Predict the structure of Molybdenum cofactor sulfurase middle domain-containing protein.
Amino acid sequence: MDAKERAVSALVQSNKRVALLVAAGVAVLGLGLGYKYLRRPEGGEEEEEEEEEEEALVRVGVVSRLLVHPLKSGTAVSVTRAECQELGLRFGELQDRHWLVVTEDGHMVTGRQEPRLVLVSLTCEGGHVRLSGPEMEELRFPVKQPDGPVMDCRSRYMRFNL
């Protein structure tokens, strides 16, 4: 064998070794991924993401008091528990900022436009809503309105001027 033939033979054997090492690496990688996939619980990636999120949670404070405002801009009500819903907090028969004062022409009124509104409290007792405040006649009406024709009674119930 001359030098040229020996060089070609060594190169072929070297290429075979490289190919064998690459094949072994791919096989080990495939086995590792297969093992990980088969050990994954149902739900797969979602559960892994939830576990990562739980590990990442850091306590940043403590809720010492929970205040809700059933009437937008009205007096706050302190509650010990509330249910988180899509549109806000629910506590008993009421929801946070569910009620709103409006003018006769349908425009909303907030504490910025009428600062006295922050003194008005809204509570719910026995299926009735109660509005009260200083220098204001108490107003009570049922939470569930009867089905049937609607009559606008706003001027009858609005005994305080905003």
Remarks:
- Helices lie at 3-39, 45-56, 154-157.
- Residues 66-157 form one domain.
- The radius of gyration is 36 Å.
